[in-house]
Recover the amino acids of this structure.
């Protein structure tokens, strides 16, 4: 779903929740509904000693997280009861909340400011962020060279143990659901996405990045600190890429919250790829091995192999169908009236520049940015602006740089941060929290500040968002 525009048609489906099924006599079979949008990889598995094939259709995130999704799917298959009632098989938001770690119930905040006076008038334009703008540095501090993350420390380090302990202690305080429309004056409707909760605030959108973990276009669990990691990662990149494109960010009142100007969102996702890889129906390797040599307007040479680096980065845009993404060419985008030629030219140029810059930064920190997706919109002033998230673990695929060439020469899959799998749900969640934080610290060279638990997260967010909206008067 679109995490910037609550008005896109696809958003009407964001309240859907999974239907879990187990075949009689086979507790390890987990069947999810058909593939939907944002799928960048499809991994086939055969369960050990059963011969049962299992396909995982996952949301876009680096391959380092795929083994954890697979493990968690098996855990869910074992732990979620199978109901004989079709109605009960559909997990409502309330049921889902009860099955994952949730936040403390929100408490209404008192405010002396009338709700109608919190926001600017609808005629206010979506002004791009100036090149010199610096976002608030929330819970990020520079790390000394002695304590900067090393890829060698992924599976054994004091920092890893520190984060895992903190994650284990925070399982009961994850941000799984939000209800700011009940606690913050001036906020209207809520749109619940897979990861973000989006609130309509007149001229502004309040985007809350939760700790929800999704796969199969479904919410699976909540991972401590995940929302904060994603929000701060995007803000770090938004700040670093203002020389390439303006964005819609207005303020950052909380570790998990971004306030953005409303913009008209282009119904096109700009997927940029640097390698021939992937396993879904629309991935580059899947279509290439089927003989396709002209994909989304890109001419591909013969003789390429899986995980090979492309001679140049390419753009493979997609647009939304009823239940999946559809690859389109630049000409089709213009012919269908999805974008004007000038808007497409500007957005595509920015997407390629953002990806090239992201690759350079990742390489400096020992990683390879393999592919990612961007979303753009247009303000009332006519400027094309960057929306959504940028180069996060959920929107991008990363590989380990120093072992890529050797493993590629041996026809091995690129190395990811997935060597050790935990044995229990609590260990799984703590390990996932660590790996999200590890990627953040590796890219930004900043120390992630583990939030204090004295105040419930929802109360903190309500207080900070209310104050931020008041300041926008």
């Amino acid at each position: 779903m679109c995490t910037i525009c609550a008005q896109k048609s696809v958003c009407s489906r964001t309240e859907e929740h999974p239907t879990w099924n187990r075949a009689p006599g086979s507790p390890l079979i987990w069947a999810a509904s058909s593939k939907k949008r944002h799928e960048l990889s499809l991994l086939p598995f055969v369960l050990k000693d059963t011969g049962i094939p299992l396909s995982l259709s996952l949301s876009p995130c680096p391959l380092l997280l795929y083994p954890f999704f697979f493990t968690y799917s098996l855990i869910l298959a074992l732990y979620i009861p199978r109901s004989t009632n079709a109605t009960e098989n559909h997990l409502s938001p309330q049921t889902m909340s009860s099955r994952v770690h949730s936040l403390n119930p929100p408490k209404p905040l008192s405010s002396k400011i009338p709700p109608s006076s919190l926001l600017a008038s609808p005629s206010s334009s979506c002004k791009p962020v100036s090149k010199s703008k610096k976002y608030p540095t929330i819970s990020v501090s520079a790390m000394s060279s002695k304590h900067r993350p090393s890829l060698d420390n992924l599976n054994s380090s004091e920092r890893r143990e520190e984060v895992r302990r903190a994650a284990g202690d925070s399982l009961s305080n994850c941000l799984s659901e939000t209800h700011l429309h009940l606690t913050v004056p001036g906020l209207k409707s809520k749109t619940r996405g897979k990861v973000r909760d989006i609130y309509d605030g007149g001229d502004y959108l309040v985007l809350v990045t939760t700790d929800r973990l999704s796969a199969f276009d479904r919410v699976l669990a909540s991972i401590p600190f995940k929302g904060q990691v994603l929000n701060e990662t995007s803000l770090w990149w938004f700040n670093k890429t203002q020389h390439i494109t303006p964005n819609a960010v207005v303020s950052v009142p909380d570790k998990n919250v971004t306030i953005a100007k409303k913009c008209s969102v282009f119904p096109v996702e700009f997927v940029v790829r640097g390698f021939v890889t992937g396993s879904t129906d629309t991935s580059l390797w899947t279509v290439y091995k089927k003989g396709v040599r002209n994909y989304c307007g890109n001419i591909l040479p013969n003789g390429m192999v899986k995980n090979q680096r492309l001679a140049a980065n390419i753009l493979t845009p997609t647009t939304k169908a009823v239940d999946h993404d559809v690859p389109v060419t630049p000409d089709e985008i213009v012919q269908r009236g999805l974008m004007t030629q000038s808007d497409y030219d500007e957005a595509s140029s920015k997407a390629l520049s953002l990806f090239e810059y992201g690759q350079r930064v990742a390489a400096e920190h020992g990683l390879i940015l393999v592919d990612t997706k961007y979303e753009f919109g247009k303000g009332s002033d006519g400027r094309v602006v960057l929306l959504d998230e940028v180069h996060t673990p959920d929107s991008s695929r990363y590989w380990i740089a120093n072992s890529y060439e050797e493993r590629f020469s041996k026809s091995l899959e690129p190395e990811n941060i997935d060597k050790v799998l935990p044995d229990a749900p609590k260990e799984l969640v703590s390990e996932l929290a660590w790996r999200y934080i590890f990627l953040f610290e590796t890219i930004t060279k900043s120390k992630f500040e583990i939030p204090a638990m004295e105040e419930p997260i929802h109360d903190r967010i309500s207080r900070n968002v209310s104050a931020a909206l008041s300041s926008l008067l």
Remarks:
- The chain has a mean pLDDT of 74.
